[in-house]
Design brief:
With 661 residues, this protein is of the alpha/beta class. It has five domains: 4-33 and 87-186, Glutaredoxin; 192-291, Glutaredoxin, CATH 3.40.30.10; 303-436, Glutaredoxin; 468-524; 530-648, Glutaredoxin (3-Layer(aba) Sandwich). It has 22 helices and 19 strands. α21 links the parallel β16 and β17. α1 (4-24) packs across α7 (112-128) and α3 runs antiparallel to α4. It holds the Pfam family DnaJ. Residues 1-24 form the signal peptide. InterPro entries: DnaJ_C16_autophagy_reg, DnaJ_domain, J_dom_sf, Thioredoxin-like_sf. Residues 28-93 form the J domain.
Length: 661
């Protein structure tokens, strides 16, 4: 019992050493240059020079010298730039994940579960590394921003990066089988199609999408991960199909106990290349497919294909020519392309320095039109242009005079073409014209709608993968609350719509009833409300009036209420639809002090007013609370007097305007 703590401490040291030994080998630039993480720029530069001399391919006989030299150079480029040291994920891992799956292991110091995962991490590296999957490690404490960005909630954590998309592995890192199934499930959907007897011909004849066809045969019932990783790497150039049919095996004489991969070009009757082994390695797959990833007559459908078929070469003696037939995306030109394809197969110039291809004029019009010499009339359709790419945008070219017409004898055209190629391959000869061109339009790129849908699906899946069990319930609660609010709002709007429909029906019914009765017509009359002006309603009726609005106030007392209010109501009734007027009344007993102060402020000089409340009864005030002025109307004479002079008829109305209060 006395040695138990010491034994546990020794075991911890062993696990820590094992963890660091495993993590140190996972594509760590510091480990590659053999420097400490806190090394200065001078120490990094010194280590790079020493290792570069040691592993230079011209000075080292080691079989992995070239690969190690490239790793050393990339590690130095990463660590020599302080900004790139912090953006390694965006600059290296994300671009490479377009073709190579990446597994990133997140850990931290003094993490007991990280120590427990170290032996399994070693097994993952040994098993999945040869299949073509890259690995990287991230210290979560030193890279907190990246951890938050990738939704790392627990440590240790394993993250899969595919084409820039993030997938978090939520299980414990103890089972290689579960990790393999996790990677298989996250691969692009139907990347490897299942090919049966009734669709073998349609699969092989689909090369018009500018991709080579490949058939995978293996004794197992499902395609293995190594073939999925290879198909992911070459998915833009090769379409893969998995065959589990004895009839197709007999058709191509494929043994049942061996793995076989067949590659087809335009000739679907016989494969152009094949691999047959008990266990095909990923390196062998890559070597064979890389050498046969283009059709006999490929189409220049993207800038990537142009750069692969017609690489840049500025040196004139080593220039590479690309012989391109210009057609359109129509089946009427299939005979011309097939004839040019047959010539490319039998051409004596089909070497690495001369490549044959075709291009669609209607889809790559900008590129083709830039190859027409200025001031010359050239009809590019069914003509052949010979290209020499000096750099990425600078092209020298020359057109062949004759057209590629299958209706006529092509012997003269082929002789002219061969003579032109033979002449241009000489180091002393140069092409007649040169121009600057833009990149080719990518004919295989997704549309805007497809990109939006894909991004939404990837975002939803990454959000789901980034959630742990503790976050699922709150997320579901928020989602349920939002759905409930939307449903309740829709239900309320539905009830309002029903109420409006009922009102419209009642109006229509009343209108139809009135039409039957010619003596009366009942129209809708808006109500007129008279509000009492007192301290509780003063703000609403006076102080908080909107611009342009006024309040008409009748001054009365308790005794005159019954007589004055009906008359006032009748007088203002015609103005009930005016939205800028409000009507009210005020008892002089309650508002005498306010009324006295209001009148006193309108006088030019300050003096004491003695107001008889009885004389104020019947006065009408027009108040503008926004502009702070008022008008007074008070009747001095009765309307019963006869033959009233014309100049005295309006003398009972008195209007007073004062400065703002």
């Amino acid at each position: 019992m006395r040695w138990a703590p010491q034994l546990w401490l020794c075991q911890s040291y062993v696990l820590i050493y094992l963890l660091w030994s495993v993590l140190g080998e996972l594509d760590n630039p510091y480990t590659i240059l053999r420097v400490h993480r806190k090394a200065s720029q001078q120490e990094i530069r010194k280590a790079y020079k020493q290792l570069a001399k040691e592993w230079h391919p011209d000075k080292s006989d080691h079989p992995d010298a070239e690969r190690r030299f490239v790793d050393i150079k990339q590690a130095y480029e990463l660590l020599s730039d302080p900004d790139r040291r912090k953006r390694q994920y965006d600059k290296i891992i994300v671009p490479k994940s377009e073709k190579i799956p990446y597994l990133i292991f997140f850990y931290t110091d003094w993490c007991f579960q990280c120590l427990q995962s170290a032996p399994y991490c070693r097994k993952i590296v040994d098993y999945l590394g040869p299949l073509g999957i890259n690995f990287a490690t991230v210290h979560s404490g030193r890279e907190p921003n990246l951890s938050r960005r990738l939704s790392i909630h627990t440590l240790p954590c394993l993250v899969l990066v595919l084409d820039g998309n993030i997938y978090v592995y939520k299980e414990t890192i103890t089972s290689i089988t579960k990790i393999i199934e996790f990677i298989r499930a996250k691969m692009p959907y139907k990347m490897v199609a299942k090919v049966k007897e009734n669709d073998i011909d349609s699969f092989l004849s689909g090369w018009e999408d500018n991709r080579v066809r490949s058939l995978i045969f293996e004794p197992k019932q499902s395609v293995r991960l190594r073939y999925l990783v290879t198909a992911y790497y070459f998915r833009h150039r090769v379409a893969f199909g998995y065959v589990n049919s004895q009839e197709i095996r007999d058709m191509y004489q494929v043994p049942n106990d061996m793995d076989t991969v067949l590659l087809f070009n335009e000739n679907t009757s016989y494969p152009m290349a094949f691999i047959r082994m008990k266990d095909i390695s990923t390196t062998t797959l890559h070597d064979v497919i890389s050498s046969n990833q283009y059709l006999t007559l490929p189409r220049l459908s993207s800038q990537e294909i142009l750069e692969a078929l017609c690489p840049c070469e500025w040196n004139k003696p080593r220039k590479k020519l690309c012989v391109v037939l210009v057609t359109e995306a129509s089946h009427s030109y299939d005979p011309h392309r097939q004839s040019f394809r047959s010539y490319a197969q039998s051409s004596p110039y089909g070497t690495e320095r001369v490549r044959f291809a075709y291009i669609y004029h209607d889809k790559q019009a900008e590129f083709v039109n830039s190859l027409i010499p200025e001031g010359k009339l050239v009809e590019p359709l069914l003509k052949i242009v010979i290209l020499w790419r000096k750099d990425t945008s600078h092209i020298k070219y020359e057109w062949v005079d004759a057209k590629w017409e299958v209706e006529t004898d092509l012997n003269e055209t082929t002789q002219l073409l061969e003579s032109k190629i033979s002449t241009l391959l000489k180091s002393s000869e140069a092409l007649a014209y040169e121009t600057f061109v833009k990149d080719l339009f990518d004919e295989h790129a997704k549309g805007t709608f497809s990109k939006i849908i894909t991004k939404i699906m990837n975002f939803a899946e990454s959000c789901y993968d980034g959630m742990n069990k503790d976050q699922i319930l709150p997320a579901l609660s928020v989602l349920g609350t939002m759905i409930f609010i939307l449903a309740l709002g829709y239900f309320m709007s539905y009830l309002v719509r029903l109420e409006e429909e009922n009102i419209q029906k009642q109006k229509a019914k009343a209108k139809s009833g009135n039409n039957n009765n010619d003596t009366t017509k009942i129209d809708y009359q808006p109500e007129l409300h008279l509000h009492e002006l007192r301290s509780e309603t003063y703000n609403a009726l006076v102080r908080l009036l909107k611009p342009g609005c006024r309040t008409i106030v009748l001054v009365l007392d308790m005794q005159s209420r019954q007589q004055l209010i009906p008359s006032f109501h009748k007088a203002v009734w015609p103005y009930r639809k005016n939205k800028t007027l409000m009507f009210s009344y005020m008892y002089i007993e309650r508002g005498l002090n306010w009324y006295k102060e209001l009148l006193q402020m309108s006088l030019p000089e300050e003096r004491e007013l003695n107001i008889n409340p009885r004389n104020c009864v019947g006065t009408v005030l027009s108040l503008n609370g926004h502009r702070k002025y008022f008008c007074v109307f008070h009747v001095k004479h009765t309307e019963k007097k006869k033959k009233e002079p014309k100049d005295l008829r309006n003398s009972g109305k008195k209007t007073v305007r004062v400065e703002p209060l």
